[in-house]
Amino acid sequence: MKRVLAFVLTLSLALLPALSLADETIKLGVTGAFYEDLWQPAIDQLKQEGINVELVQFSDFSLPNNALNGGEIQINAFQHHAYFNNDTSNNGYDLKVLADTFVITMNLYSSKYETVEALQADVTSGKKLTIVVPNDATNQGRALLVLRDAGLIDLNDDYEGTPNTENVVQKEGANLELVAVNAAQTYQYLGDSDAAIINGNYAASYGVDPASAIFAEKVDLSDERFVCLIAVRAQDADNPTYKRIAEVFCSDVTTQAVKELFDGFFYLTWEN
Q: Do both 207 and 111 map to the same domain?
């Protein structure tokens, strides 16, 4: 009888880690409805391995890092390095990058202009124009680089990292106003402006066709600033379960979802 009890006890102890893992739900913070479809293939595979992942939607970029640092969620996946570095530094968050994932394009869209050349012509004609850009520092700086590359503004060289509005140099004769709004709202201002720079996650969430952009961002994967990432609290950086979540996401299961649902929005780091 003692041998039977000992065997049952040993078996129960052996099953405890697996059972506790299966019972635990790991909360992962994101921003934008499209993440539901993007993460679902990885979530399905992880569930087969006994790892349960629940996506938690946040309406604003300023929220997921705060929630992660406070322990309300265990992982987040919504930001690029430039935003991560700025946000963690300014707020004293003790977070760490778990994995790089992709660059999601930030393009220029317009409901009034079919080509960027037509918009360029009106800019230099002195016509009063408005272009909507995100209002947070890193995404606004990235938007300004897109507008420069699109030939709509110039930038002086008096900045490190990403520029701000003080670095904007208007084209000769231009009467261009940059309207800064929350990044999540840029699409909603598209009809009331001449053009708008829209983050790819929000453009995808609204079902925008990336091919409809009048100017597409020039993506350089060797430039870490705008490479998106998966983040955890520093104390969890070596957690094998969290590492496995990142590993499964950065694999063919996500590649297939991107090709089927979001072609044109993503440049995947694990494919390059």
A: yes
